[in-house]
Predict the 3D structure of the following.
Amino acid sequence: METGEEFGPWLARQLKLAGKTQAELAKELGLTRAAVSAWIAGRSTPRPTVMTEIADALGTDVGTVHTRTTDTQAGLPVTWYHRPGYSDGGRDLGNAAAFAFDADVQVLARETCQNSLDERLAENGRPVRVRYTLHELTGEHLDAFRDAILWNDLFPHYSAVSELTGNQKVGRVVDAGVRDMYEKGRLVLLRVDDYNASGLTGDDYADGKFAAVVRRQLESLKSGTAAGGSYGLGKATLWATSALGLVLINSTLSVPHEGRTERRVIGRLELPWREVDGLPYAGPAWFGRPDPDKPGAEVARSWWADEETVSRLHLSRDSDEPGTSFLIVGAHDVASLEGDYSDYSDPDEHVRDEEGFDDTRDIKRMHGRLVEALGRDFWAAMIGGGGRLPLLEASVRALRNGEEVIPETKVDPSVEQPSRSRALRAHYEGATVDRLTEAGQVASRTVPLKLPLTGGARGTLGTHQAILLVTEAAGDKDIPKNRVHSLRGNRMTVKKAPVPNLPLGTNPFQAVLLVGEAAGESAPFAKEAEEFLRAAEPPEHDRWGQTEELTLRWSPSAYRRIANLTSEVNSAVRELVARPKRSRGEGGEALRKALTVKSRPKAKVPTGPVVPVLGGLEATIGEQGEWLITAEVSIPRGDEIVPVVPLAQLDVRSGGRPKLDWAELVAVEGCEVENGTLHFPTGARRAKFRGATDVSSHPVRTTLTRLVVELRADKGA
C-alpha cells in the first residue's frame, strides 16, 4: 500500500481545509485536545479504530487517512482565484515578460529545455530527460478537459477580454484562441515533462523555485554556476505559446514539502485587466485549493492531487522521478508561418483558417519544428564519450485524442549535427589532432579568454583557455557550414556565427568552441569564465556581447574581451582549415623546368621607397554597431615599401573628420600587423587586411554615419 505524508502535517492541513480546530476534532472523537495535539506534533499516532472515526469527522474514507497520498475532499474545493483590480485604478493590459519572446515553439523548446538542464539532478550522474507532447483534443475529449479546468467559471473572463480586442493586443490573441476552439471544435495541448530534475520545490509564497515560477516575474533561482538562464524571463515563453494564456503544472519534488513529493498541482492564467459582473480584475489568476490561512480563504494555492485528477487534467507523469510537467493550453506557433515545413504535414490533413492562411495549430508541423530546434540548440548536451555521460535526452511526440499521430521521436545529435557530434566525441575520447591532414579528423586548439577584473578595475583577473574543435563538414545536409557553435557549461549552443574572410577554396568545415565549464571544470578560471559570459548574454541567450549587467559588474569596455576571443577563434579556424602550400618539388615544378619559354627582359625596378595605396574596400555594420572592413592594398614596384597606418574616420560635411579606434586589425595576406601598422615583405605587389572599429569610440550611432578609410605612411619609417 502506498503511504504518503506523515500523519501529523497531513492532519493539520486537513483541519485547516475543513475549517476545524484541534479542540473541535477532539470533542467529536471524545478525546482530549492534548491527544490531537500529540498526533499533529508527531509524538504519537492514533489507533486503527480511531482512524475510522477521524475519517468520519473529515468526511472521507478510512483508506485516505491511512495512505495520506491526497487531501480529503472535505472543506474548500479546487477553484479559480482571480487577482482583484488595483485599488488605485491602475491597469495591466498583459504580462510584459511574455512579449520578450515570440509565440514560437522553437523559442519555447530553447527556453524550457535550458531550464530543465539547469535543474538537472547532477549527483546521480544521469541525464535529465525532457519530453514534448503535442495533443489535439476534439469532441468528448475536449468537453471532458474543459470540465476538468472549470471552463464555465473562466468563460466570463474570456468574454470580457474579447470585448477589449479592438484596443488591446493580448485581447486579440486570446479572442482568436477562444474562437478557434469553438469554431473548429479542437484544442491543442503542449506538455513539457522533465525527469531527473529538481521540481518546483519550496513554499507557495516564500522564496523558492515554486514561487519564482508560479508567483513571480523576473526572478531566476538556478541550481548551478553553469546555469543558462539569469533573467527569470524564460518561463514567460510557456504563457506566450498559449493563445489562451493558460498553463497547468504538476511537479514531483526532489525535496519534500509538507511531507509530500508527488502531484503538486497548480494552474496560472495570464489575462489583461478586465471587468466581470461589475468587478475589476488585475490580470493573473490561479487554479488551486483556497488557502485557509489567507483572509477569506480566497487566494488559491497548490494542492496535492490524486491520480484521477491529474489524469483528467492531462498531467499524468510516467514515474515518480523528480521533475515538472507544464501543460500549455491552446498552444499555437505563429513563427511557423515563416518557414516551409511541408515535410512534416500531411497535405490531405493540412489545415488552413477561414482566410486561407497556414494553420498555426498544426501539430505535425509543430512536431517537426520542435525536433529541429532541440537538435540545433542542444546537440552538445546529448553527447557522451570518454567516460562522460550526456546531460540531456530529448524526445517529441504527437497525439490526437490519446492516439498517436507521430510516434515518440528521440532527438539524435548524430543525425541533427553529424560533424559537430563527431568533433565533440573525439575531444571527449582524446582522439583529436593538431592539424587536419586526413578526412574525418578533428583538430583541437586552445584559445585564450582574458578575464577582466570586476568593478571597473584595470588589469586581467586571469586567462581562461577555451577549446576550439574543427572538422570537415561531412554529412551535414541542409546545415549551414563554416560556422562556429559556442557553448558554456550546460552545453546549450549560445552563439552561432560564420567565420569571415576565409581563403578561396577552403573545404567546408564545422567548428565548436567550448568555454567555461564546457572546457572542463578543472580548466583554469572556468567558473569565472562562466560567470562573465553568462552576464554577457541577453534574455534570448543567443550571443555574447555588451549588456547592462556586464557594464555594471565589470566595465563598459569589458565586452572587448569577448571581441578579442572571437578574433582569436576566427584566426585559429582560418589557420586550421588553410590548405598547406605545395613545396617547390611538387606539382608542376618539374614540368616547368622541362619547358623552354621565351621571356621578355625584366623591366627596370624603380629605386627608392614606395607607399602602398588603398585599392578596394568592403564595409558592413556588425552586431554591436561596429564597422567591419576588408581592405585590399596595391603596392607599386620599388626596392623599399613604406609601412602604413590604416585610419578609420567618419565622413562629415565640415571640419575635421572624427577618428575611430580599432578594436581589431588583422592581416589576411601579403602583410603583417604590428602595433596598428601594416608592414609588407620586399617584392609584395598586393595585400589584404581586415579590421573592426571600437564602438566606444563612435561619437554617434553607426547607422547614421559614413566611413572613410585612409592609409598614411608611418611617421617612424
Summary: The chain is about 25% helix and 25% strand.
